Amino acid sequence: MAAADRRRVSDIDALRTLAHPVRYRILGHLMAVGPQTASECAAVVGETPSNCSYHLRELARFGLVERVDDAPADGRERPWRSTATGWEFRAGDDTGADPVAADANRRLQHAGVDEEARIAHAAIDRMDVLDERWRDAILGQTYGLRLTADELVALGTAIDSLIRPYIGLTRHDAPADAQPVHVSLTAFRHPLP
Question: For domain 6-137, which architecture applies?
């Protein structure tokens, strides 16, 4: 994949498919490290290669992943990749008028929060095996901002433009010692009454 390709997925069935925790983890893994076989995905997500093959086929059914090549081989040995370098998942117009779309959006958002927490906990558990440079580079900042909705959109756009040159699937000038790094940004109106 040569250029950034961010896509919006609004199909309710695709969102329901991705809300499955194993599928969500597999897609995230492919986005973080690039093409992987079902066996390689299985080692990361804690599933069997045959189970990962099944989940990869389900993701492919909705165009979220694809095989890297069409060479005949065992499905566990052919690599898969994300079909985009970034995703936005949201059914409908978010007004809540369609309860099925609202439920699909909610389930996927919860899956995303759960995966973010899982990754963060795993990173914390492995901090003592990192060298000092990587430990010192870890960011863990929280801000309480006061913004308008338009300002939040502008902030998100500005942050995205800063991050985009480092996207692993499209960065061709990465130094030899560059490693996959997980960056998460969540911003929302505080749920206080």
Answer: Orthogonal Bundle (1.10)
